[in-house]
Amino acid sequence: MKAGQPGTPSKDDWLLSVLKEGDRVGVDATVIANEAASKMSNVLMKKKIKLELMDENLVDTIWTERPKESLNQVELLPTKFAGVESQEKLAKLREQLRANDQPLYGMLVTSLDEIACKHNTIH
Questions:
Q1: Hey, how many other C-beta atoms are within 10 angstroms of the C-beta on 14?
Q2: Consecutive H or E run containing 45
Q3: Rg (CA), the chain
Q4: Whole-number Cα distances in Å, 57 to 1, 28, 62, 79, 108
Q5: Gap between the Cα atoms of 28 and 57, Å rounded
């Protein structure tokens, strides 16, 4: 599911739909803001589901054969697929940031379909 898309339930709504009274939800406390954790906890309590803030990343405890992070150079998608050279895309981004009086510290990409993942490439 892709959050924010029409017809896609929120995390809270999805959890309420698949969990039953008395269940628990574990969340890595280092990756959730206090306000978000409080909101999620309040929503889950409607169905007596408890939010557990964990000291460790639960995925790391079960993903024992995780591939090592690649130190390979990033491979740019050919322009025939991307449509525009990366330098042109960056120039447009900088122009838009300046037009909105935003500081040019950098850009954070958070959408999964915008993140390159080398080990998922089919060879």
A1: 13
A2: helix 34-45
A3: 20
A4: 21, 5, 9, 37, 22
A5: 5
pLDDT digit string (tens) for 35-91? Answer: 999 999 999 999 999 999 998 888 888 888 888 888 888 777 888 887 888 888 888
Nearest-angstrom CA–CA distance, 43 and 16: 8
Please give the share of the chain, as a percent, with pLDDT higher than 70.
Answer: 81
Average pLDDT, the chain: 81
What does the alpha-carbon distance between residue 22 and residue 37 come to, in Å, rounded to a whole number? 18
- Nearby residues of 40 by Cβ (< 8 Å), 6 or more positions away: 11, 12, 25, 27, 32, 51
Over 70: is that where the pLDDT of 104 sits? Answer: no
In the chain, where are the structural domains located? 11-62, 79-120
* Residue 83 CA from chain centroid, whole number: 25
The pTM assigned to this predicted structure is: 0.54
